[in-house]
Amino acid sequence: MTTPEKGKGLAGVAGEPFAVELRGVTKRFGDVVAVDSLDLTVDENRFFALLGPSGCGKTTTLRMIGGFDEPTEGTIRLHGEDVTGRKPYARPVNTVFQSYALFPHLSIFENVAFGLRRQKVGDADVKRRVGETLELVQLTGMERRRPGQLSGGQQQRIALARALINHPKVLLLDEPLGALDLKLRKEMQIELKRIQNEVGITFIHVTHDQEEAMTMADSIAVMNAGHIERLGTPHEIYEDPQSSFVASFLGSSNLVEAAVVDLARGELAIGTRRVHVIPERVPAGAAQVKIGVRPEKLGVHSPGETTAVNTLMGTIADVSFIGVSTQYLVDTELGTSMAAVQQNTGGRRFSPGEQITLAWAPEHTFVVR
Amino acid sequence: MTTVAPAMRRRGRLAEGVRRHMITFYAVLALAYLMLPVAIVILFSFNDKNGKFNFVWSGFTLKYWKQAFEVPGLLEAFLRSLRIAVFSSFVATILGTLIALALIRYRYRGRAATNIFIFLPMATPEVVMGSSLLALFLTFKIQTGLTTIVIAHILFIISFVVVTVKARLAGFDRHLEEAAMDLYADEWTTFRKVTLPMIMPGVFAAFLLGFALSFDDFIITNFNSGQVVTFPLYIWGAARVGVPPQVNVFATGLFVIAVGLMGLSIWAQRRRS
């Protein structure tokens, strides 16, 4: 194990150094700032997702951890050890590339064994470990084939095996499922999660697919324009996105302008209505904010038939029935329209033109600036 | 009316047939155009010639194949050209491959200029290049001979190597090298284990091209050869007094080897993919 005092890294849970620690990391390409003074720590044994739209700096961040790009400023530590400026081959991390980057001129066996060969592992050990790793990714028996003879999904697993066989301290995955079709992607999401549980290595997964990140990751960092907008568990981020960017990037939401009336009690005004939110969610010192409610959190009721804390009157503008749920588009009393989704569990269904009341709970309301 | 119609229909069918087989027809014609001279060379290596010149067919013989090595100076010239070609294209392939790597991989001052200078030897007429090289050697008082031939050959082969290898590198996935580095291969190991094997077909093709260019170069060699006689120079000299059929024998042998090598290269590439 590395000695924390040597790299002087900050300690994570229980005194152990963080698996990955970025301090003030900035990357400029000419005039373009790809990553802007980023601070990020990832605990041991985490499935960590870097989520964001293309060009947000997530891949650059990953490449700097891997050593393929050097930060313009800042330091990168792996398990407390400062690796800034080190070449990729001198870092205890391995990478699964988006294009897989399997060596087309080598057999599957030699592809998977590549890292071990470079570390001068003996033939018998190489053979045993390649066998074990291929078993882990469920591709036993493919040893003698060439990458070109495998399907996309199989190549993906080989790319994973080739990285995992080296028992890296951190595994970096750059949109590893991007090239797969939807069905295979779903399968691989579960598969990746299983493998991460089994090997207990920190995974850092870059993706632009919010559903993928939510399905797999323990923690997610949502990135935008070179910095982290929000960091937390999938649940925390979804329920309390804290910024309109995160709110709209993860799922859909109804955002409404609101004025802060009573900060301590979490009371806000939208138009002439008073609504209540969890007080801690209101940013200190803000007078004008936006409140947001997810469509599935909005209840649709006949007027007067609800005792919910927060309500709005409206008229049904559009109804679409999609089997498991019904989606309503509602013209509210504020002059804006809101989307509401109701599970089809036997409740009353409404038709366009009907007067209704939208109702929701304070804990289902988030506040963004 | 009634008599004209069937004739027209027949002519229509004929035109249709010609149209349908046009591509095949042209292909055969083009191939014949390319292969006919080669076929003649091979055929006349078996000609039992009358008199000095080997231009008129006068009967089949294996005589010249049996006496292939008995013409004074021919074998020596042939082997000399072979050695020059192997050495020049080997050196040019190494240098050209490195230049191609630099041109594709790095953005540096003088990169555009390098591109132009690489292109120049291909665009310059051989007579101009041969004579200017001779002028250069004379200015620097370098004795023309084997060394100057090799220098000249390396010079013009490099351009073709760079162009060939560059084409191969253009489609190269940089992530492959990053993956190798990620898997504990340092720069040199990455080059040896990944980059070079991947571009090898291009490098090999460049070597073959260089070999062919060097082996049959006449104009530039003629300016810079001094007293040294290469195979093309030998044939040129011999042609004035009557080319011995052994030249055809050597040419046939070379053709067979070249076709064999090409076949081998294609087979290797097919197996790879």
Describe the structure in your own words:
The complex is a heterodimer of chains A (369) and B (273). Chain A is an alpha+beta fold. Chain A has helices spanning 4-7, 58-66, 108-118, 123-136, 152-164, 182-199, 210-216, 234-239, 244-249; strands spanning 20-29, 32-42, 47-51, 73-78, 81-82, 93-96, 170-174, 202-207, 219-224, 227-232, 254-262, 267-270, 273-276, 288-293, 299-301, 310-321, 325-332, 337-343, 355-360, 365-368. Chain A has a domain at 252-368: Nucleic acid-binding proteins (OB fold (Dihydrolipoamide Acetyltransferase, E2P), Beta Barrel), CATH 2.40.50.140. Chain A is 24% helix and 34% strand. In chain A, the strands form four sheets. Chain A has a six-stranded mixed β-sheet with strand order 6-7-8-3-9-10, sandwiched between helices. In chain A, a hairpin with a 3-residue loop joins strand 16 and strand 17. In chain A, helix 3 (108-118) crosses helix 4 and helix 4 crosses helix 5. With 273 residues, chain B is mainly alpha-helical. Chain B folds into two domains: 4-60; 72-243, MetI-like (MetI-like fold). Chain B is built from twelve helices and no strands. Chain B has helices at 4-20, 22-44, 63-66, 74-105, 111-123, 126-139, 146-170, 174-182, 187-215, 219-224, 231-239, 245-272. The mean pLDDT of chain B is 88. Classes of the chains: A alpha+beta (369), B mainly alpha (273). Chain A binds chain B through residues 66-68, 87-89, 93-95, 97-99, 101-105, 114-115, 118-119, 148, 162-163, 166, and chain B through 173, 175-176, 178-186, 189, 193-194, 197-198, 272-273.
The CATH topology assignment of the domain at 252-368 in chain A is: OB fold (Dihydrolipoamide Acetyltransferase, E2P)
Second CATH tier, the architecture of the domain at 252-368 in chain A: Beta Barrel
Q: Widest sheet of chain A: strand order?
A: 6-7-8-3-9-10
> What is the number of helical segments of chain A per DSSP (H or I, 4+ residues)?
9
Which stretches of chain A are poorly predicted, pLDDT < 50 over at least 5 residues? Answer: 1-9
Q: Given this structure, which CATH class of the largest domain in chain B is correct?
A: Mainly Alpha
The largest sheet of chain A is: 6 strands, mixed
Radius of gyration of chain A over all CA atoms, rounded: 25 Å
Oligomeric state of the chains in view: heterodimer
- Which architecture name of the largest domain in chain B does CATH use? Orthogonal Bundle
- Helices of chain B, by number, come to 12
Total strand segments of chain A:
20
Note the beta-strand portion of chain B: under 5%
- The number of E-state strands of chain B comes to 0
**Overall shape of chain B:** globular
How would you state the average pLDDT of chain B, rounded? 88
Radius of gyration of chain B: 25 Å
Please indicate the percent range of residues of chain A in DSSP E strands (runs of 2 or more). 25-35%
CATH topology of the largest domain in chain B: MetI-like fold
The overall pLDDT of chain A, averaged over residues, is 89
> How many domains would you count in the coordinates of chain B?
2
